[in-house]
Amino acid sequence: MFYRPADGHGLPHNPFNAIVTPRPIGWISTTGSMGDNLAPYSFFNAVAYVPPQVMFASTGVKDSLLNLRETGVFAVNIVSFAMMEAMNATSASLPRNVDEFAKAGLEKVACETIPCPRVAGAPAVLECRVTEEVALKGGGDFLIIGEVTGVHLRDDCLVDGRFDVTRYQPLARMGYRDYAVVREVFELARPGEG
Questions:
Q1: Do residues 100 and 86 touch, judged by C-beta distance below 8 A?
Q2: DSSP 84-114
Q3: d(Cα 37, Cα 93) in Å, to the nearest integer?
Q4: Closest C-alpha among 2, 18, 114, 117 to residue 104
Q5: What angle do CA 73, 78, 83 make, to 5 degrees?
Q6: Among candidate residues 135, 137, 155, the one with its CA nearest the CA of residue 145
Q7: DSSP code at position 82
Q8: 136-139 — which CB contacts under 8 Å span 24+ positions?
Q9: What is the chain's Cα-based Rg?
Q10: 120 to each of 13, 67, 105, 125, how far by Cα in Å?
Q11: What tens digit of pLDDT does each residue of 131-152 get?
């Protein structure tokens, strides 16, 4: 099968999200004049090492986007398999002044380098300052790039000096309503690496 996105795919469901998988979930926490917000974004990833930078895309103007436009900061909370139900609860469309932390029964704690809450007990959290917002083609979608200013790592996830994802089993977004969990990893050296 071949299709041009501009012409449509003719399938019952759009296959695009199922092709670009698995995608890490950026559980974005923000704060603003209307209160705290927590929402999962599967258009999320790391994009640079020095300085460390991440990006996420908002499909539409959501509370997270409004808050970070107001404050210039956000935190990326990494989602463990054990936090799946809470993460899903925070994906609900709620009024702007409703605190998703409270709605999902999550404890929040303050970040260290930015004025923003984070999810207590998350295996890792990246504290970020917005460096760029890009309006994407098509209208209504926005790419946010942030510089990581602080990193929290849960102590039980550190093994022999390495951050071991199998200790918390990260949740990943697939297509449609599908998710995956990382329970095993393997090492593969690049050509020429010893």
A1: no
A2: HHHHHHTTS---TT--HHHHTT--EEE-SSS
A3: 11
A4: 117
A5: 125
A6: 135
A7: G
A8: 136/57
A9: 17
A10: 36, 20, 11, 9
A11: 999 999 988 999 999 999 999 9
Q: What is the pLDDT of residues 10-46, one digit of tens each?
A: 999 999 989 988 999 999 999 999 999 999 999 999 9
pTM above 0.70, yes or no: yes
Strand boundaries in the chain, DSSP class E? 23-24, 26-32, 35-41, 44-48, 53-59, 73-78, 108-110, 117-119, 124-135, 141-153, 158-159, 162-163, 171-173, 179-181
Handedness of CA 92, 93, 94, 96 (dihedral sign): positive
CB-CB neighbours of 40 under 10 Å: 22
**CA nearest neighbour of 36 among 138, 125, 107:** 107
Contact 125, 77 (CB under 8 A): yes
Largest CA distance in the chain: 54
Sign, CA torsion 121/126/129/130? negative
Rounded Cα–Cα distance for residues 194 and 183 (Å): 26
Alpha-carbon distance of 34 to 38, in angstroms, equals: 13
Number of other CB atoms surrounding residue 123 within 10 Å: 23
Q: What domains are defined for the chain?
A: 23-181 (2.30.110.10)
Q: Are 94 and 100 in contact (CB under 8 A)?
A: yes
Q: Please, are residues 157 and 143 in contact by the beta-carbon 8 Å criterion?
A: no
